[in-house]
Automatic annotation (TrEMBL):
Belongs to the AFG1 ATPase family. GO terms for molecular function: ATP binding; ATP hydrolysis activity. GO terms for cellular component: mitochondrion. It comes from the Eukaryota. Residues 61-109 form a coiled coil. This is AFG1-like ATPase. PANTHER family: AFG1-LIKE ATPASE, ATPASE N2B. It holds the Pfam family AFG1_ATPase.
Length: 588
């Protein structure tokens, strides 16, 4: 007999509609609407849920909740201090830019009055001219003169304008690590929800989403640089209106262009400066980054995370992160060791490392209270298929909308065909989602667009289909991170879904690669070059060598999350937490 829910899909959807986040926090992921609801502090949330019987008390979790509560208190003053700092910084930057323009104009006047752009051959003897050419260094690199001029000008600005305002010291963040189901993500999300209304600039990323966002930002900066190069002949209005001849104006334009090139020479700091802010946002106040599942899966991840996270920490961003490993243990294979060690040093200098040492998987503990309420239907040779179809029809008929096929945007101009969809609910086969060369970007697009996802025909996974298994794990991560409702038909129970690890590593590079256009691939090689990896050697350098322990952690995490996703308490949060419903609230 197949194992299936005794509660119909219709009734569960009704439950989701009636539950409001402020009254019914979700188990394990107990945070409320990430953007619109102001919440109590993490410790208060945690104690309330324990008192309600929705969480089992754990001393390690309570300790972390207390640390996060204390950090939240420090952030309130830090936000005010950073607002004052950014006002002073903006004034300093304006003064410095105005002074820099003044210095440039002075230099331009000297060149103009000195007749730098007239024919000097008429006033030189051939002997002097030959002497000048003989003494001209033959090995001077192009741009060295501009670099010297740029540095001299910066030194003058330091003297005239004064030193950059000193930023207030940032509170130390937290780096939480521990076993599957120990509550790391739950506690981080409690903290994140608590920062609403306190910290304006805040972002929460899962590893896959962060890597894709980095690629998008890199691509945008690269395209901007290309566009600017196409208009090199254009001259800024402030230069065009100066009373100099065209040659002097061209010199000024070249100096301005060189300054921009210096500032954009390293693309990662430029990405970091935009990582937490929307295009129109003004950067004033503190910033917080919550980063779920920090990993060091390949060279790109190490180089990109090191450059961006280090930059954010150096400029005052407070980091709260989760991982299965301590920082020093992230890079088991020693890839780009020098860069990685600097990254670890930066993390340890700006975060308190806290081990959540519980061996209990609390997702399983909570799920035991709801053993009869299951959306994971198995085995395939029973009546699971019929029950799966029944739940699909209940979910789609209730909406009163027609089932259609549609195309959704992914990233970098790509799209994904969705064979069956209806009013925020979509249906796929396992082979369609995991048997083709798709990756995290596709799964994020699905998770953002559909609050309920049906997946049929999930096989028992072993090393023989390790590519499909790895994609499936990535898919579950994204559905969970976006708080989707998941309905499955499978060949075996959740606990028996992943079998065997002796005959090879269950790892597929495709699931960690990030789809880009042709020029996007060039960007990735450019960043890898910073890690001393040539463009020729990049593909082999990217290949991750995850240990068996890493793989087993990924399996356990996927199983643990699927178990939690079957509980009605998790389902209560779909309506309030999923982006589909949040978009509806914003437009209502």
């Amino acid at each position: 007999m197949p194992k299936f829910s005794s509660i119909s899909g219709s009734l569960l959807m009704t439950i989701c509609r009636r539950m409001a986040c402020r009254n019914h926090p979700t188990a394990v992921r107990f945070y409320c609407n990430r953007s619109t609801t102001k919440r109590a502090g993490p410790l208060t949330q945690y104690k309330d849920l324990v008192n309600q019987g929705k969480l089992q008390h754990d001393p390690d979790q309570e300790k972390v909740a207390l640390e996060l509560e204390n950090l939240l208190g420090r952030l309130q003053q830090y936000e005010k201090d950073m607002e004052e700092y950014h006002v002073k910084l903006a004034e300093w930057e304006n003064m410095r830019e105005n002074e820099r323009h003044r210095l440039l104009v002075e230099e331009a006047e000297m060149k103009h009055q000195g007749g730098m752009w007239t024919s000097m051959n008429k006033h030189r003897s051939k002997f002097t001219e030959k002497l000048m050419f003989r003494k001209k260094p033959e090995n001077v690199e192009p741009g060295v003169g501009k670099w010297v001029s740029y540095l001299n000008r910066e030194r003058k600005l330091d003297t005239v304008v004064g030193a950059r305002p000193t930023a207030p010291p940032a509170p130390k963040g937290l780096y939480l690590f521990g076993n599957v189901g120990s509550g790391k993500t739950m506690l981080m999300d409690m903290f994140y929800s608590s920062t609403n209304g306190i910290i304006k600039h805040r972002r929460r990323y899962h590893f896959h989403e962060a890597m894709l966002e980095i690629n998008v930002r890199m691509h945008q900066i690269w395209k901007k640089q290309v566009e600017e190069k196409q208009f090199q002949s254009s001259i800024s209005s402030w230069i065009r209106n100066l009373p100099f001849d065209s040659s002097v104006k061209e010199w000024l334009a070249e100096e301005e262009k060189y300054k921009e090139e210096v500032q954009f020479k390293n693309i990662l700091p430029a990405v970091a400066d935009k990582f937490l802010f929307d295009g129109q946002e003004e950067h004033r106040g503190a910033s917080v980054l919550c980063f779920d599942e920090i990993q060091a899966v390949d060279v790109f991840a190490i180089v990109a995370l090191s450059g961006i996270v280090s930059r954010l920490l150096s400029t005052g961003t407070v980091l709260v992160a989760t991982s299965n490993r301590a920082p020093e243990d992230l890079n088991q294979d020693g890839m780009q060791r020098e860069i990685f060690l600097k990254f670890v040093e930066k993390l340890q200098g700006h975060c308190e490392n806290i081990l959540i040492g519980s061996e209990i998987d609390y997702r399983r503990h909570i799920a035991k209270q709801f053993v009869d309420q299951n959306h994971f239907l198995w085995p395939l040779d029973g009546s699971a298929g019929e029950d799966f179809q029944k739940m699909w029809l209940e979910a789609t008929n209730e909406s009163g909308m027609q089932i259609i096929s549609e195309t959704i945007p992914v990233m970098f101009g790509r799209t994904l065909e969705v064979p069956e969809s209806c009013n925020g609910t979509a249906r796929f086969t396992f082979e369609y989602l995991c048997g083709r060369p798709v990756g995290a970007a596709d799964y994020i697009a699905i998770a953002r667009n559909y609050h309920t996802v049906f997946i049929s025909g999930i096989p028992t996974m072993s090393m023989r289909i390790r590519d499909k298994a790895r994609r499936f794990i990535t898919l579950i991560d994204e559905l969970y991170n976006h708080h989707c409702r998941l309905v499955c038909s499978a060949a075996s129970s959740i606990d028996d879904l992943f079998q065997g690890t002796e005959d090879g590593r269950l790892f597929d590079l495709e699931s960690f690669q990030f789809e880009t256009e042709i020029e996007g691939s060039k960007l990735r090689r450019d960043v890898l070059a910073e890690g001393s990896v040539s463009s020729v050697g990049a593909p082999s350098g990217i290949i991750s060598m995850l240990s068996g322990q890493d793989e087993m952690f990924a399996f356990r995490r996927a199983v643990s999350r699927m178990i939690e996703m079957q509980t009605p308490i998790y389902l209560e949060g779909v309506r309030s937490l999923h982006p589909y419903f949040q978009r509806q609230l914003q437009h209502s």
